Inverse folding.
C-alpha cells in the first residue's frame, strides 16, 4: 500500500497503524492463546455494547458474517433473498452461497441506497445495505419485513457507528453484519467480521456454524481482536473527523454534487461520493495531479457476469455507476488536503 501511495500527494486510502495498536498486538501474542484468547471475548462484548445489541459473534470476514447469518435463519436453496444492486458483490454472493435466489433491487438516486419499491417479488429475507456508511430508509424496510413476516439482515459492513434515529445500524434488524477489512471505518489489522443480534438462538447457531459445529471456539485471531478493541475505542472520534471532511468537501465544492445524508440518521461517510456526468475526465485530472480516487461501484451487481442470468435492467443504478466518484475520506486527511482536492476538481468543472 505504501509503495502504491508514493506517487500520490493525496492517496485514496492510507491504512492506520499506531503504536497503541502495535502494543496491543504484541501484548496479545505474548500473553494470550493465539486463537480464542480473552481479547476475542472482550472485543465481542465491547462491540455488542457499542452497537446496542445483547450479543455479538466474531467471524473471519464480513462475507462470512452475512453467509452464516442467512444459514442461521434457515435460508436455503428453496429461498429468495432481496438485496441492493449497488453494493460490494459480497452482499449478493452470500445469498448464492446458500443456494437461494438473489432478488436485486434498484436504488434511490439521491443516496444510492436500496429502493425496495423496485421489486414486487416475494422473498424469505431481506439484506438492506447501509451503503457508503449512510443508513438506508429503515422504516420502509421494517414495514416490508412486518407485512411479509421475513427477517432483516443488515449489511452494515460500511457503517460502523452510523445511526438511524437514535439507534446504531446493526441493532435495527434481526441481525447486523460488519466487516473489518482494512479499508473500513475500523479494522482489526487484517480480515475480520462481526455479527450483532439480540436473538440467542441466532447467536448459538452462528457460533456453531463458524467452527465445524463446535460451540466453544472462535474464529477471529486473538491478535486481530486486540487491535480491534483499540480501533473501536477510537471509532467515534475518527467517524467525527470523516463527517467534518464531508462538510469541508461540500463547502468548497457544492452540496449539489454530493449524495444526501439520511435526514433521519447520521452517516459515518465510509465513502464520500461526488457525482458528475464527466466523472471519468474528473478522475483522470485528479490522478494527473496526484490525487487518488476510486469508483464504488463501476458495475452494478446485476450487470456482473455472475448475475447476468437474472437478465435485469435497473436503470437508476446503471446511470449512477457511470457518474459516481469516491473521494479520499480517511480521518488522517488534513483540511489542506481536502482543499487541494476541491481546488483540483474546480479547475476542471
Ligand atoms: C457492503 C459490503 N458488504 C459485504 C462486504 C464483505 O466484507 P469482507 O470483505 O470483510 O468479506 C463488504 C466489504 O468489502 C462490503 O463493503
Amino acid at each position: 500500500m505504501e509503495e502504491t501511495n508514493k506517487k500520490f500527494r493525496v492517496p485514496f486510502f492510507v491504512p492506520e497503524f499506531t503504536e497503541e495498536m502495535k502494543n496491543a498486538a504484541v501484548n496479545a501474542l505474548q500473553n494470550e492463546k493465539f486463537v480464542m484468547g480473552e481479547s476475542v471475548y472482550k472485543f465481542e462484548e465491547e462491540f455488542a455494547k457499542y452497537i446496542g445489541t445483547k450479543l455479538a459473534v466474531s467471524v473471519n470476514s464480513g462475507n462470512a458474517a452475512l453467509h452464516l447469518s442467512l444459514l442461521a435463519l434457515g435460508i436455503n436453496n428453496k429461498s429468495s433473498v432481496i438485496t441492493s444492486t449497488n453494493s460490494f458483490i459480497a452482499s449478493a454472493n452470500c445469498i448464492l452461497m446458500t443456494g437461494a435466489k438473489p432478488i436485486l433491487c434498484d436504488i434511490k438516486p439521491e443516496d444510492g441506497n436500496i429502493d425496495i419499491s423496485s421489486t414486487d417479488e416475494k422473498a424469505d429475507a431481506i439484506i438492506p445495505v447501509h451503503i457508503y456508511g449512510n443508513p438506508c430508509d429503515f422504516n420502509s424496510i421494517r414495514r416490508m419485513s412486518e407485512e411479509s413476516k421475513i427477517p432483516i439482515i443488515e449489511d452494515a459492513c460500511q457503517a460502523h457507528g452510523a445511526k438511524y434515529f437514535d439507534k446504531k445500524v446493526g441493532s435495527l434488524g434481526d441481525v447486523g453484519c460488519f466487516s473489518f477489512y482494512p479499508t473500513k471505518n475500523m479494522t482489526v489489522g487484517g480480515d475480520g467480521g462481526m455479527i450483532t443480534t439480540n436473538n440467542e438462538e441466532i447467536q448459538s447457531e452462528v457460533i456453531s456454524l463458524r467452527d465445524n459445529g463446535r460451540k466453544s471456539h472462535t474464529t477471529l485471531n486473538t491478535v486481530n481482536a486486540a487491535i480491534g478493541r483499540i480501533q473501536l475505542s477510537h471509532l467515534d472520534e475518527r467517524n467525527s473527523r470523516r463527517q467534518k471532511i464531508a462538510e469541508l468537501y461540500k463547502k468548497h465544492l457544492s452540496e449539489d454534487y454530493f449524495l444526501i445524508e439520511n435526514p433521519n440518521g447520521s452517516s459515518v461517510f465510509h465513502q464520500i461520493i461526488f457525482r458528475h456526468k464527466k466523472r471519468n475526465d474528473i478522475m483522470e485530472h485528479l490522478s494527473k495531479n496526484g490525487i487518488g480516487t476510486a469508483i464504488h461501484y463501476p458495475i452494478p451487481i446485476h450487470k456482473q457476469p455472475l448475475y447476468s442470468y437474472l437478465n435485469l435492467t435497473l436503470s437508476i443504478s446503471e446511470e449512477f455507476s457511470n457518474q459516481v466518484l469516491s473521494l479520499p475520506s480517511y480521518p488522517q486527511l488534513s483540511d489542506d488536503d481536502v482543499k487541494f482536492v476541491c481546488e483540483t476538481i474546480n479547475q476542471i468543472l
